[in-house]
Design goal:
Arc Repressor Mutant, subunit A, about 50% helix
Length: about 210
Amino acid sequence: MLADDHAIIRQGLCALLNADGRFWLVGEARTGREAVEMARTLRPDVILMDIAMPVLNGVEATRQILAANPAAKVIIVSAHSEEEYVERTSRAGVAGFIEKQAPIEMLIAAIRLVAEGKTFFSPAIAKRLPKDSDKSQGQDGLLNLTSRQAEVLQLTAEGLCNKQVAAKLGISIKTVEKHRQQLMDKLNIHNIAGLTRYAIGAGVIESSVQLNIV
């Protein structure tokens, strides 16, 4: 299964994998939330997951997928290879991580190994893997958030107002306000700009995302 918000990337990967002839693509997700729902329904052997996606980023989507199905195998395929992303995805439980710049042969090898129950991290990513994940895990405030709070955090940081967040998630505006207040209490942050800065620093959204902060 593929999860990437860029149609060109999805179509390119689909064509390359189909051309190989050893894989069966069961679904394509455009957002992290779609990936979670699709993985729950389709239960694919391997999931290729981007990090920066709307509604729910790939790290949180991976957490939710593995929480529902610990046997699922997720390979991150992302342009983001900075240490913070490698650390967070590793703690989320991914089975592999490859840069989008990597050759298709490396991706195919990764899929086959991960499907067999092994792990695969590209050489550049392997160097950045955390050496003490248990220690760092307790320092990640994101791990203390519920899945819904993580969704509200990302959408808020992307500049959506309460009404827009409610519409995206299919919940009431009052429920959004409740989740946002719980976010602020847990993270000890008291305004929207602070939540946005936290989301950028934690890698929930990219700093290049266009934000509407007032």
